[in-house]
Amino acid sequence: LQKRGKASSLSWEDKVIGPRHAPEYTSAVKIDGETIATAFAPQKSSSRDMAAKAALVVLFEREMVSESLVPESDDVVVGK
């Protein structure tokens, strides 16, 4: 995104649901206001990490990042 001058268009939307003792975080990666990827986890940092990995896969498919940045993990689920 930096190479394309779009780093400033990246934003996050985080939400938390559930009781205090068992929260569920939802993190969405947005570019120019469009949700690129969303992930859910019991910790905000994990939710963001998973959403970021999924976003890299989507951006690669759109030819916006190089293949070397795409995670090899099978646990990345792409979709809206």
From TrEMBL:
InterPro entries per record: dsRBD_dom
**Chain segments annotated as coiled-coil in the UniProt record:** none
- Keyword annotations from UniProtKB, A to Z: RNA-binding
Q: Boundaries of each DRBM domain copy?
A: 1-61
Q: GO molecular function terms here?
A: RNA binding
PROSITE patterns of this UniProt entry?
A: DS_RBD
Question: Which SUPFAM superfamilies does this entry report, sorted A to Z?
Answer: dsRNA-binding domain-like
Name the UniProt record assigns to this protein: DRBM domain-containing protein
Which species is the source of this protein? Answer: Lentinus brumalis
